[in-house]
Amino acid sequence: MSAVSSHRPSALGQHPFSVAPMLDCTDRHFRVLMRQISREALLYTEMVVAQALHYGRRQRLLDYDPVERPLVLQVGGDAPLLLAEAARMGEVWGYDELNLNLGCPSERVQAGRFGACLMAEPDQVARCIEAMATSSSLPVTVKHRLGIDHQDSYHHLLTFVDTTAAAGAQRFIVHARKAWLQGLNPKQNRTIPPLRYDWVARLKKERPHLSIVLNGGLTTMTDCRQALTMCDGAMVGRAAYDHPLRWADVDAVFYGRAPRRQLRPSAIVEAMIPYAEAHMARGGRLWDVARHLVQLVQGVPGARAWRRRLGEGAMVRGAGLAVLQQAAEALKGRGW
Fold first, then answer.
1. Once rounded to an integer, what is the mean pLDDT over residues 216-224?
2. Catalytic positions, please?
3. How confident is the model over 245-250, as a mean pLDDT?
């Protein structure tokens, strides 16, 4: 999709289930794959750095397929003027919401002075949120941790949320762990700091007017249903990327849609072929799309061999659609 000129007002929607923004995972190709599984789940882009939008190739960074909506543009940065510009671009490009990344603990992100380290500066975050909110009619939301390093009390969390809410943040996606900015890498920060769901539940109880979404450690539909007993939504990360078909009932369970007939991996691969064809016609590689499909089949005899054949075939330079067609036929031959 290219930029469109129409501006439309947008209100914060109710989204009980969302898929977390993940670097090198939730690109436009994976999001189209997820739309074969759920039409309703709220999807997020990978984090786009506001400075890159100012200086870089905006079309490459912002374009998406309309089927991906509802879709949130997640941005990173600490400069209100650049974030305001990013917010305006997000609206022009037709995104449904804007999200500020305040949870990434990587050293590279810290070096840019954004991500989780900004939780130490709630007033600066407020200036960023206000700049985004006044530059666009789109809802502005934040994704953050419980705290960072030794600034990890519930009082710190509540002060941070109150400050950013007053500046215009409309939804808080809370990764229910704190982040250690030194000593743990991003992967360790997703698993080692303990989960504190009780803090998120308390936050919702004490600030019932705010939209609070729980993130962190949710790996099953049961986990997500439990999350909705304490807050307004559940956000799933790696479990959505690593096990996409685990979420085939999301629309029926969380959005009241009529149950769909069983989703077969073969049908999903076939549905992705026209999309892959269009991507390749624009100069892309088959592997860009196919790399997200390898997790569709798991836990059954022959799954590993199928994944290997798909991966090896799609990685070959000049690989064509026949690789996906053969992969789909192989699945159908096994009743998948």
1. 97
2. 104
3. 96
